[in-house]
Amino acid sequence: MIVFVVVVAVASLSTMFAQATHQGTNDGNDVKGNLDIREVKTFGQTLDPAWKIIVSSANSERVLRDRGFFLVYLDTFGDGRFDYYALVSSDGSKMLAKLWRDRLNRPDSNLGQLFVRRADKLSVTLRVPLSKVNTGGKGRLTYRWFVKTLYTGERCHRVCIDRAPNKGALTESNGKQSPAPLTTDDPELTESPEPSSPAPTSPDPSESP
Hints:
The chain is mainly beta.
């Protein structure tokens, strides 16, 4: 059984946020290793959003196996902590994605596989249907997110960790007011997810580079 220990320090925020549309974030050359984030793009339907994470170095699935991980954290309750995370890893030949419930003082819960594709070796695209998460009741109109990458290897013997945005989180609509598509018909989102096997053991994200 794989256990992920995730330590996330966040500021206390209000439980309600203003209405928002899809947005992305850019990130500078600020971390060593192969998974220095350069840009995160969000698109798709409000109830079925997707994230495209673009990094600075091209990486094959073989290189990423047991070394490189992409995570999208979601705060859907508006309670000041991040309740879910999507984990993307490699089995050496293809990328795999799972959704996890961060249960704080209990083992994290695996909620099943997610859609993931690669348009090129600089990026991964991940889709997280909001039907898989608890959005905190009928009064919640938004959720918050941020992205992390973890990499071990040359120049990253412990763990190199990058985050986008570097501080805080971005806010999106959860679709309760705007269920229609907000943006693109992206070719990366047209296929069904492949069956996935258990993700490889990741480095502890609480370690510093």
